[in-house]
Amino acid sequence: MALRNSPDSFGLISRLIHWGMALLILSLIALGLRISWMEPSLSNLWLYGLHKTMGLSAFGLVLFRILWHLISPPPGPLATGWQRLFIKAWHWTLYALMIATPVAGWAASSASGIDTLYAGTFVVPPLVEVSERAEFVWFILHEIFAKTLLGMVIVHMLAAVKREMGGDGTLTRMLRGRA
Amino acid sequence: MPVPFRFVLAASILLALPASAAPVAYDLERDRSSVTFETDFGPDTITGSIPLDSADLTLDFDRVANSRVSVALDVSGATASFPFAAQALKGPKVLDARAHPQMTFQSTSVQAAGDGAAVDGNLTIRGVTQPVTLRAEIYRQKGTAVGDRSHLTVRLTGKVKRSAFGATGWSDMVSDEVRIIITARIAAKG
Ligand code: HEM
Ligand code: HEM
Fold first, then answer.
1. Which of A2, A136, B31, B139 could form a disulfide with B153 if both were Cys (CB 3.0 to 4.6 A apart)?
2. Structural domains of chain A, count
3. In B, which residues are within 8 Å of A132 by CB distance?
């Protein structure tokens, strides 16, 4: 089984990252909504730490994913003409949001003035100065980015299922490598 | 349990003692004194302490109104019951320890009240001064004889609304009201 991508197949590494990150990001959104709705207390404070650790992991993974796709470019969408361009633009936007969402969360957390910990141990350097105004703005951006990402992922998923049912093997290619 | 030393009645109990007529100045026994606070965090309580820098107390058991209390706290040494709370507490959104390393209380009037005294004074937090009333109770220290006023324990308790001092950080999570308990162990000067 090929680790690398080829012009018409997804290698194992790209597929593992795609599905791993999909799971991670969907859990992050669910967890993020949970912590923004809950009443904070000593017994649930750790959920903030969990969300931050998972979010920073997602950020690390997306950087690795981009690096890997520079080394080993993935196949283009199984479509032609404007649809192909549109799908590519959609994927690029997903990447932009996969970067912007954790960066905004990290910046908001830095602006709050409390250390951001990775895995409860490592203090992550603050991205911005402590400021209530900055904290407010970055959290709003974090929420907008995360919810836009969720909306775009739902469309992305429905489109993939639709193309698969149409018989072009899009989903099979992301699952097994080849259409 | 320390033995309560009734502020007002103390005078009559201690009449026999020679030095009891005048106000007495006291030194703080810093290592044996503490300032603790507590506040609500959702269904839970955050507790913590802030070290005492200095305290200046002059007590007059005959004329309580002649008593004076002033206390200074070292905000940068504040601790709290869980790791993030101490950082939040000292940070710019709450006590802003970097800009305002001290918190002070200066009495403006002391009146006998029940078993203790009501101490009106000015409390300065984050450079903002607000009037507050603390309740004072004086106890004999363990191991001292009845009537011996050379070593005393003063307990000052009260509540403040942190928003009045601009210490508004995390107001959606942490209650506005903070309860303060100062336990000052003091020794008569000289
Ligand atoms: C891909 C990564 C991430 C996703 C998809 C994500 C998603 C979300 C979502 C959906 C919310 C709820 C927003 C709301 O309704 O207000 C949220 C809240 C939050 N996120 Fe993230 N997040 C990510 C990364 C991070 C990172 C890296 C940090 C910090 C280091 C972070 C810190 C927070 C915090 C502190 C909240 C709670 C805000 C509040 O109190 O309302 N997130 N996140
Ligand atoms: C947070 C969730 C998700 C994100 C951020 C995401 C992101 C992406 C991105 C950026 C690509 C382009 C290939 C690459 O660069 O890796 C892609 C491809 C793909 N995704 Fe997702 N995805 C997510 C979830 C899903 C889900 C739930 C499905 C399920 C149907 C799915 C199905 C696919 C398929 C079939 C492809 C291949 C498209 C092609 O061949 O052009 N993805 N995804």
1. B139
2. 1
3. 93, 169
**Does B87 contact chain A (CB < 8 Å)?**
yes
Question: Which listed ligand is nearest to A74 at the C-alpha?
Answer: 2
Report the distance separating Cα A84 and Cα A45, nearest Å: 45
How far apart are the two ends of chain A, measured CA to CA in Å?
14
- Amino acid found at B88: A
Cβ of B88 under 8 Å from any chain A Cβ?
yes
Vertex B63 angle, CA B62 and B67, to 5°: 110
Residue closest by Cα to atom 30 of ligand 2: A157
- The CATH number of whichever domain residue A156 belongs to comes to 1.20.950.20
**Structural domain harbouring A92:** 12-176
Alpha-carbon distance of B121 to A31, in angstroms, equals: 47
pLDDT digit string (tens) for chain B, length 190 residues: 454 544 433 433 343 344 455 899 999 999 999 999 999 999 999 999 999 998 899 999 888 899 999 999 999 999 999 888 999 999 989 999 999 999 999 999 999 988 889 999 999 999 999 999 999 999 988 888 888 889 999 999 999 999 999 999 999 899 999 999 999 999 998 7
**Range B11-188: architecture per CATH:** Beta Barrel (2.40)
- Tell me if A113 and B92 make a contact (CB, 8 A cut-off): yes
Element (H, E) at B13: helix B7-13
